[in-house]
């Protein structure tokens, strides 16, 4: 495959997008919060003895969904990782609006639901239920739903592997 796959992380503020990207690239936990900035970071991994090039794209958050960064450049070879915090159900439901904004830009890439902060799922009153997750998955048309915890490194590399496998299948690489 010549063109790298873009893994575009989208979702509300404080769900863990920037921490996830940082931990994958630096193999360690980010020690302090750094406001997400719109950037693409190139990386590679091997899946089934094949080297896959990909870009991790960390998107900044804006209070108004209409002001999301122009994502039309991600029409080809892109997977959108729709991030929410498992301990905050409103972050899950916010993905419906994020998806509408992405689709309004003509971007049709596959969607992956990613529940972040899995280590906090028992410490919250607003935990995401399986019923809520299925509703949003159906509503936005996500092809996968995964969970992870950057704090304890639970499933972080599995998320990348599964997302890249979906991309290979989607784009027949």
Walk me through the structure:
- There is one protein chain.
- The chain is built from 4 helices and 6 strands, in the order βαβββαβαβα.
- The N and C termini lie close together (6 Å).
- It has helices spanning 17-26, 89-104, 130-140, 156-171; strands spanning 5-11, 39-47, 50-58, 78-85, 111-116, 144-147.
- It is globular.
- Helix 2 (89-104) links the parallel strand 4 (78-85) and strand 5 (111-116).
- Strands 2-3-1-4-5-6 form a 6-stranded mixed sheet, sandwiched between helices.
- The chain has a single domain (5-171), classed as P-loop containing nucleotide triphosphate hydrolases (Rossmann fold).
- The longest helix is centred in the middle third of the chain and has 16 residues, at 89-104.
- The chain is an alpha/beta fold and 173 residues long.
- It holds the Pfam family Ras.
- It comes from Hexamita inflata.
- Keywords: GTP-binding, Nucleotide-binding.
- One of its GO terms (molecular function) is GTPase activity.
- This is Rab-like protein.
């Amino acid at each position: 495959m010549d063109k790298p796959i873009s893994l575009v992380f989208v979702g509300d503020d404080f769900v863990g997008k920037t921490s996830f990207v940082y931990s994958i690239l630096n193999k360690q936990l980010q020690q302090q919060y750094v406001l997400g900035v719109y950037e693409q970071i190139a990386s590679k991994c091997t899946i089934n003895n094949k080297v896959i090039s990909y870009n991790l794209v960390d998107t900044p958050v804006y209070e108004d969904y209409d002001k999301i960064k122009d994502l039309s450049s991600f029409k080809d070879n892109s997977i959108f990782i729709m991030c929410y915090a498992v301990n905050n159900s409103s972050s899950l439901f916010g993905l419906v609006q994020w998806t509408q904004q992405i689709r309004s830009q003509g971007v049709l890439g596959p969607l992956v639901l990613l529940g972040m902060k899995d280590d906090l799922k028992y410490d919250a009153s607003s935990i995401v239920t399986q019923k809520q997750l299925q509703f949003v998955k159906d509503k936005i048309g996500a092809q996968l739903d995964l969970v992870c915890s950057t704090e304890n490194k639970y499933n972080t590399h599995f998320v990348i592997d599964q997302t890249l496998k979906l991309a290979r299948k989607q784009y027949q690489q």
